[in-house]
Amino acid sequence: MNVALAQINYHIGNFSDNCKKIKDAIEKAKEKKADLIVFSELAVCGYPPRDFLDFTDFIDKSYNVLYDISELTDNIAVIIGSPSYNKKVKGKHLFNSAFFIHEKEIKQIVNKTLLPTYDIFDEYRYFEPNDEFNIIDFKGHRIALTICEDLWNIFEDGIYKINPMDELSKLNPDLIINISASPFSYIHDSERERILVANVKKYKIPLVYVNHIGAQTEMLFDGGSMVINSKGVIVEELDYFKEDFRICNIDNISSFFSHHSPSTIKKVSKIEKIHDALVMGLRNYFEKQGFKKAVLGLSGGIDSAVVLVLAERALGKENVLAVLMPSKYSSDHSVSDAIQLAENLGVKYETLNIQDVVDTFENTLQPVFNNLPHNVTEENIQARTRGVLLMGLSNKFGYILLNTSNKSELAVGYGTLYGDMCGGLSVIGDVYKSEVFELANFINKDEEIIPLNTIIKPPSAELRPDQKDSDSLPDYSILDKILYEYIELHQGPREIINSGYEETLVKRILKLVNTNEYKRYQTPPILRVSPKAFGMGRRLPIVAKYLS
Amino acid sequence: MNVALAQINYHIGNFSDNCKKIKDAIEKAKEKKADLIVFSELAVCGYPPRDFLDFTDFIDKSYNVLYDISELTDNIAVIIGSPSYNKKVKGKHLFNSAFFIHEKEIKQIVNKTLLPTYDIFDEYRYFEPNDEFNIIDFKGHRIALTICEDLWNIFEDGIYKINPMDELSKLNPDLIINISASPFSYIHDSERERILVANVKKYKIPLVYVNHIGAQTEMLFDGGSMVINSKGVIVEELDYFKEDFRICNIDNISSFFSHHSPSTIKKVSKIEKIHDALVMGLRNYFEKQGFKKAVLGLSGGIDSAVVLVLAERALGKENVLAVLMPSKYSSDHSVSDAIQLAENLGVKYETLNIQDVVDTFENTLQPVFNNLPHNVTEENIQARTRGVLLMGLSNKFGYILLNTSNKSELAVGYGTLYGDMCGGLSVIGDVYKSEVFELANFINKDEEIIPLNTIIKPPSAELRPDQKDSDSLPDYSILDKILYEYIELHQGPREIINSGYEETLVKRILKLVNTNEYKRYQTPPILRVSPKAFGMGRRLPIVAKYLS
């Protein structure tokens, strides 16, 4: 049996474009004599559709795509993800389903059993869990059809009481097919491979796995669809961060018996994965929103330098505008480093002086401020003046403003709301400052694209004379480790202190993280590359007193 | 049996304050000879704790409160909500539990069966659902102890397959106790009463119901705890929007048989409920964050006028600063109406002229804008200049900026990001413009607090000469009805058109709502008063093409 794997970049709610891509893939599979083509989870409407699922109109449009593509299934079978109605009186109204379509008919509907409801996932918000198990008989094969999370409860301490493959294996399947929307994080590809191989080894049958690819705002899907033979060897592996298509004769794969799996992703470092994910995330955000051009403030510091390079790679140098907005506190180097980078990239830049506006703000406020000493207020006015100028360019010319805040400063609130926290999309808001340095070095691996001085000088917001980040914050090498233990590992204060950090410092940092939740609430969406990003995947109350 | 109902305003993660309030209530109940005291759902840690539940330290601190209060239970029993560990290997690690504590011992733990995971609720994100049912035997009574949602699946078409009271009723209980964290919306109090009475009528035993009270950022809990006798008559009803305490001898309530239920809430109009909820929401936000003072921009329009009145009522006139920031497009009336309102309330006001800053922004941008005609860009610069001035006052003096956007403009994106969309808290972001008018009239019911001219003049953003909202938007009387059908009722375009609205208009409005999701993503938290508010309760993708 020839199985086609269609790894496609869908657009949420864009039924006509999704339908066209699906039909094109079916035609291609038919040309290449595939018996079956497999698409990913909720392919028809895009993943995650979120509360659009509350609209009957949205579900009806999904069904219409299914009816439309079923016309092409005269001599090929299709497995594709779509929401479907639960016709029983009790329970939620929808299932997250895989449709098996053949001979112009919907022959079988398999519903998802395990509904991830943690981190960025909200599936139980919408869907009724499945509790009936059936096999699909097709061309002499008995297919155990599962949806994403359905394969992930394989270990003893799983968060669900049921393991769908244990139920399905009672029905003697000889092939597992799993359709997924499994988002990227820099550890998730290896986790995914471990889980898939563990399933194959437990049930001793091959597995066809088809994943989403592409960015849906903050959620990045990396693809990496694959076929694993019954010995646990990956015999086909589709591309990462790109659409891909592959046909595999699954009857001839059991002879592959190698400890060398052709995995490409494992050859790639964490930082390269993050780099590629961010470029895809940026590009897809613009493509799917119908935008072409980006603007950002280029300070001469490392954060905006890295974002500029990523934007140039995602959108093309002709579509990016860098804006230098030095103040009296900016070092000479900041300006020359910024210009050097723009020139290295061939990106257009403008210079706007903020001092006149800042002075006018201060004059306007003078009757109320009444000669009170300068403090963080005036620093914020500088940052907000830059924000207004950038948004002015955005409004006048249709540029989308890129936010350049990093994860470390978002964590501790070292940024100005409506100032440097402005933007339509946060590019590196899930990248700790130490990882931003790694990204800069990765970008410079072959040539000095980012001026070395930008990388080696001490980080500074340059909002007052001789300011350095280290005046207010511990060294990023320590800060980032404590933040990682708290945010990614969910360690409490005792555990972090016990792992070797100074008590006062730990408590100070955790308090900063918690009390700055109000700032993060108003942050632009953040491209997610870690297992725990700020945004939809991390939900904390603003009004709270815990560790603060 | 004397049962005490303790309706308390908890603070999320503030274990020491919560513990003190709980202990004080126990002491009071003991003095008044109560046999049992009942607290609300997750009382120990506050509701909703959200991802703080991922921290072992947070759960351990909840247990410590339970151990602490159990010391007081020598001659009184306590029922109280807290997270608890699930000790089984499979399943999520926590339950949402009700602890029955007596004679200094945790005698029984009852876990929540139905975990609301819709709108603002995320309970299945954290908790394992219960599937074991037991009765609590106490003082000759057989108590069916349930937690909030557990009583809400009573009708045939429920969203859960199981109804916990059907299981518990097999064990012959003679009393239902329900501990809740059931948030306010202007229809939720009557829904709640209907559901509770339906349970009593079905199982023919009395019900003791204890609810949260107080605001947790955007979620407002209105209290209204009650006792219903076995005939379905409300025999005790605690206060709304206030802490309250009541003792009820539940053995003597079956004789009440009246069609007059002493419900106070039903006498109150929708607008009065919204008014009271917003005042509580504002007050609690400030109290729980440790803030005292608020600032807001007072334009002379109706939105900021209503917010100023609510702030004065919540925080006291001495804690509110109104800032007038007229431009060359402001009408004379706007200034005089704003001053009149501030004087009516006895609230301090300042006037700042924005024109110098706006001119300096335009001069600074001139080399890039290059004499392009004025457009919405320059309007946004005015709004953002006001935002920066207000945030300057906030930073310098510690005022919290109140956002004054209404739900209609948030819906269609008629507002400036980082301009009038700034603020720590959105006070009327869940109140449609037509309801803002109703609020203004309610505020003026006894005397003209808000100048009549503010109410009767045509709404305008005053960002260009003679601008009116109706230049860009349909009349609010029509706009708000279409928005309500789309947002609150989840009607799609066909249903809304079929209900009598013009097709082009409906499609234009739905497109505006969907394409402005990116703006709402960066909106401050919004006090929730309707069944469907923007924010956590309405989750939509930004990058999408549905109806846009």
In short:
The first copy, chain A, has 548 residues and is α/β, with parallel strands linked by helices.
Account of the 3D structure:
The structure is a homodimer of 548-residue chains. With 548 residues, the first copy, chain A, is α/β, with parallel strands linked by helices. The first copy, chain A, folds into 2 domains: 2-268, Nitrilase/N-carbamoyl-D-aminoacid amidohydrolase; 272-469, HUPs (Rossmann fold), CATH 3.40.50.620. Chain A is 37% helix and 17% strand. The first copy, chain A, is built from 17 helices and 19 strands. Chain A has helices at residues 15-31, 56-70, 164-169, 188-203, 270-289, 302-315, 332-345, 355-369, 376-397, 407-412, 433-443, 452-456, 469-472, 476-487, 493-498, 503-515, 517-521; strands at 2-7, 36-38, 77-85, 94-102, 105-111, 136-138, 141-147, 175-179, 207-210, 213-216, 219-222, 226-228, 234-237, 244-249, 294-297, 320-324, 348-351, 400-403, 425-426. In chain A, the strands form 4 sheets. In chain A, strands 5-4-3-2-1-14 form a 6-stranded mixed sheet, covered by helices on one side. In chain A, helix 6 links the parallel strand 15 and strand 16. In chain A, helix 1 (15-31) runs parallel beside helix 2 (56-70) and helix 6 packs across helix 11. The longest helix of chain A is centred in the last third of the chain and has 22 residues, at 376-397. Chain A is elongated.
